[in-house]
Amino acid sequence: MEVQQTMRMLVTGGAGFIGANFVHQTLREHPEYEVTVLDALTYAGNPASLAPVRDDIEFVHGSVADADVVDRLVGRCDVVVHFAAESHNDNSLRDPAPFLTTNVVGTFTLLEAVRRHGARYHHISTDEVYGDLELDDPAKFTPETPYNPSSPYSSTKAGSDLLVRAWVRSFGIHATLSNCSNNYGPYQHVEKFIPRQVTNVLSGLRPKLYGAGENVRDWIHVDDHNSAVHAILDRGRSGETYLIGADGEKNNREVLALVLELTGQPADAFDSVTDRAGHDLRYAIDATKLRTELGWTPRYTEFREGLAATIDWYRENEAWWRPLKDGVEAAYAAQGQ
Ligand code: NAD
Ligand code: DAU
């Protein structure tokens, strides 16, 4: 019988939406990893998202920008998967400062520790580094698309990607990068589009659509994002960038219409509100490299089913999101959204 070697994995941002789902999937499907989570527990980090696996992981409360804690943890792990970030565009328009500290300085701090200790590093990033596409453009983002970020959030993510590429080339660290499109699924903060609309309906509030709702996002279930990250960890080539997407383009009006239908609301039961400043028009991912080179395929190919399951999750887990809801809505209301 083959005995599998245990590897020690550091997951940053593991109390956030994608990170928590990644930890759950890793423990479920990849018993070869022992997991330590490093998370600052900002407004977006929720220990309750890790409650089901609390006894199976080590949790360290701290910042990726803290060089001492990062050095100690990277020094005793084999693999680092870096999810931690300030992740919300609207917040970056209100106050960009924490985006610089966490996304740029935090990534730099991890890279320096990886350089010292020789751990394998995977960098989680976004398709927003490529800017946006026209609505009627058949093109999609590829790994060759030039960087052209629009917001404080996406520009700090672009900066962090470029640091990783420079550390690969200049210092020879063993690193891979992935840029994924919009995720949906359980444990997503209620500030984001789908959870905000679902929890508005569940709270008796009207959903809020920015502008005309024509902006297109390329939706992928969070478990598909995370299975792609595992494919890259297992088979990805060092220094390479993989785009993660599941051909899920929809405009915001279409997504909202589905939320209203699945929650039994009239089709016109929403408000159009002030548009986001600099609002990117369309994102679309060409994931050919991931599919052909690494043999990855998504499991959630029916958006309607994945969305219905996500709505059920928010219905059944009100205790998880209710404490966050009023503060988020007050901040949006203050800016007419
Ligand atoms: P999130 O906001 O839900 O979670 C972020 C987590 O990082 C939280 O737990 C927070 O406490 C933690 N964190 C923030 N600052 C920290 C710091 N200084 N030190 C340690 N921990 C800190 O974000 P998410 O949506 O889960 O996104 C995770 C990653 O995936 C980000 O890098 C984001 O750019 C990327 N991404 C997100 C999407 C998406 O659709 N949500 C798509 C593509 C890529
Ligand atoms: O593309 C990947 C990115 O997807 C990630 O890098 C980001 O971390 C993640 O937040 C997400 O960014 P978006 O800005 O696309 O997601 P958000 O959920 O904020 O908004 C999705 C779309 O819905 C966008 O066009 C704005 C719109 N919107 C959003 C909110 C919160 C609304 O119409 N109404 C709303 O209330």
Identify the CATH homologous superfamily of the domain at 7-189 and 219-248 and 282-302: NAD(P)-binding Rossmann-like Domain
* Tally of helical runs: 11
> Could you name the CATH topology of the domain at 7-189 and 219-248 and 282-302?
Rossmann fold
How big is the Rg?
19 Å
CATH class category name of the domain at 7-189 and 219-248 and 282-302: Alpha Beta
* Terminal residue distance: 59 Å
Please tell me about this protein's structure.
- The protein is an alpha/beta fold and 337 residues long.
- It has a domain at 7-189 and 219-248 and 282-302: 3-Layer(aba) Sandwich (Rossmann fold), CATH 3.40.50.720.
- It is 42% helix and 16% strand.
- The chain is built from eleven helices and 13 strands.
- The strands form four sheets. A seven-stranded parallel beta sheet has the order 3-2-1-4-5-6-11, sandwiched between helices.
- Strand 5, helix 5 (152-171) and strand 6 (175-180) form a beta-alpha-beta unit.
- Helix 1 (17-29) packs across helix 7.
- The protein is globular and about 55 Å long.
- The N and C termini lie far apart (59 Å).
- The model has no long low-confidence stretch (mean pLDDT 97).
- Bound molecules: nicotinamide-adenine-dinucleotide and 2'deoxy-thymidine-5'-diphospho-alpha-D-glucose.
- 2'deoxy-thymidine-5'-diphospho-alpha-D-glucose binds next to helix 6 and strand 8.
